[in-house]
Fold:
Amino acid sequence: MPEETTKTTKRWAMVIDQNRCVGTWTCAVGCKEINNEPLGFFWNRILTAAPGETTGESSPALAPPASDEIDVPHGTFPNVEMAYLPVACQHCTHAPCVKVCPVGATFRRDDGTVLVDYERCIGCRYCMAACPYGIRIFNWGDAEQPVDFTVGYSKDYRTDGRLVYTPNRPRGVVEKCTLCVERIDDGEVPFCVQVCPTGARIFGDLDDPESEVEQLVAEEGTTQLLGDLGTDPRIFYRPVEHEENV
Amino acid sequence: MAAGIEAAPLRRAPAGRLGRGFVAALGLLVLWGLAAWIYQLTQGLIATGMRDLVSWGLYIFTFAFLVGLSAGGLIMASAAEVFGVRSLRPLARLGVLTAAACVLVAAMTIIPDLGNPQRVWELFRYPNWTSPLVWDVLIILAYLAFALADLTVMSRKRIAPSRRARILRTMAYAGLPMAVLLHSITAWIFGLQIARPWWNTALMAPLFVTSAILSGAALVTLVALAARRFDRIRLGQETWTALAGLMAATIAVDLFLVACDYITILWGNVPRERAALDLILPGGSWQWLFWLEWIVGGAVPFALLVVPRLRRRLDLLALASALVLVGVYAFRIELVVGGMLRPLLHFAPGNALGQYRPGQASFQFDGVYHPTWVEYAIVTALLAFLALLVTLGYRWLRPVERADAEA
Structure:
């Protein structure tokens, strides 16, 4: 008798509610800490965009970016508007980085997390050229740390034998958001989700109809970043609702 | 041609003080570049001017440039056979020699660009077949093997002339599609990327093939002119005319394709593509690329090659060929950098820099790229090594018929 198989693989997804994000950068700093990111590295950053801006086309008015400083509204006074757009790896279903990696160092797990094998990466940086979101960071030299001890998750983490996290990154490899693979495999949520002071990040399993994430994704108006490129990210955004909130 | 060579007594030309000095200078440049690479290995790629926004630089420009250079020779040799272009036939062997040397050095150029060069063997152990880079490595190696085989057939004295002609003819038919494939796959490394609207055009492969023929012809012309100066080779005016005609035609086609791209972007006015083009057009911060490509490497050599009073002068042919190489190199820079300066998500504060610089931002809003001395030294060494290969290969093979051959 074949045993009834229970589905163990999840389809992880995250919704970022821009209505709730107030631009504290807590998720970016938390990310830096839990992943021991070297100085000058940000796996996760909070862009100052215009409301509803998830296409990268800089609508409204196809205007150039407001400023190269954060927290500067778009538009001309008194018609100014602003929204925060937190951007880390989008964990694309059709990930261009996975397609271009010549040695399969960047790969996508069945649960949807896109990861980098630090022991495989040859450092050609083709994935950086292929990523539409600019979220990949290269270890150009030796990692510089503000303190002389490891912070955050302090052990190596392997999945299928592949080294996808190590607190002290080797030189010459590309790194990026892992969706806190060591935490989600252990039943926890990614650290950015845990630390967000306004609860703007919602994480869960798309296959679970009861999950908040599944219900939000099914909602009208939920978008994907640069959705027209067809990368089909597992990170979704709830854009600022214009009339009520501005 | 082949019979003529065999009839001639194979005489080693005296190297001469000038020749020895040239080779020694090239050798020194190679050693200097090797030292720079060792330094880069100790520091990591932080020793270069590349960072997270402009993450490909001088090495990749040079790689694409050298792959292009390798075309001309083989295409010329093959065209001479396939299309019966008699006037190019005397240059067939020289063409294949430069093709082999260029593609070998192109493959070498990838190595210093890698963060972990010691893992390069993984390309063969774990190839990911959706990656254009894997296909490019394979076609580069196949092309190199092909050029070397071609050269062997052309140079071995034991093969009977009729048999040699038959083999070369067959190889010429294979060589042409292979050259087109090499340049197309290299173009697709860039052209297939949806993240870079500046690269993502179907024109990329035709552009690469055209600019490859253009720059390859220019290189063969320069080498042939040098050989004429130092080795008293015998080349009729019709050969120089054919080279000039080939370059003039490919300049025109090349700039036509680029213009098609510009017009499509300007008329459509899509911000993502305008972002890159505006940097390069007159008034943009990278406009020097526009002038190099359109005037210095475009209009000027085109005029030198088509104006009847000018095109017969070999000194101007040399100048035109050199300018063509400058223009094509500018096109490689324009291509790579243009795609990387402005990220698709162009919002404050920008992308992570990937480096900590006390007192300065860890983010970069627009890409900047200034190559370091390490990159210049390594690229100079690679070009010097190329010159060395061509010089020594020329001396060894004597690929062009000499004036005293029919004594």
